Amino acid sequence: MKPEKRNHKRIKPQGLKAGLTFNAASQEIALDADIIDISYSGIRVKLKTPIAADMTGNVRINMTLPESNTPFSVHGILKHQSHDDQCGLHYVDHVEGSIDDLMFECVELDETTVLIKHA
Asked: DSSP states of 93-115 as a string?
């Protein structure tokens, strides 16, 4: 196993959903996704519908914070695709709300499990 080289630890919030809007080639593409993991620098998602391998452009990620049910949006760029239906996004530009708010609402149990509290 390779040693972890990331600056920011990733957490795995089970059951957290997101809506993604890709702004690519002067068109918007809206997709639904499950969040695989989150860190302070980016987010990895599994898309409900695969995207083209050469997709580029800015992405807006919309979700609802798991405990407070507050709408939350971040902007990012597509950094990598491991499959047609999984991609990694790096946060850039405008952030509505704080990544701290999102991370705070996920309670880490151990290295591989995160509990999301529901009302």
From this structure: EEEES-HHHHHHTEEE-SSS-EE
Q: Under DSSP, is residue 92 helix (H, G, I), strand (E, B) or coil? A: strand
Let me know how long the chain is.
119
> d(Cα 102, Cα 82) in Å, to the nearest integer?
24
C-alpha–C-alpha distance, residues 22 and 4, integer Å: 29
CA nearest 55: which of 66, 65, 70, 45? 45
Nearest Cα residue to 102 out of 47, 63, 76 = 63
Pairwise CA distance, residues 14 & 7, whole Å: 22
Over the stretch 16-29, which tens digit does the pLDDT of each residue have? Answer: 899 999 887 677 88
**Better-scored residue on pLDDT, 51 or 35:** 35
End-to-end CA distance of the chain: 38
Alpha carbon distance 50, 91 (integer Å): 21
Q: How far apart are CA 84 and CA 8, in angstroms?
A: 25
Mean pLDDT estimate for the chain: 76
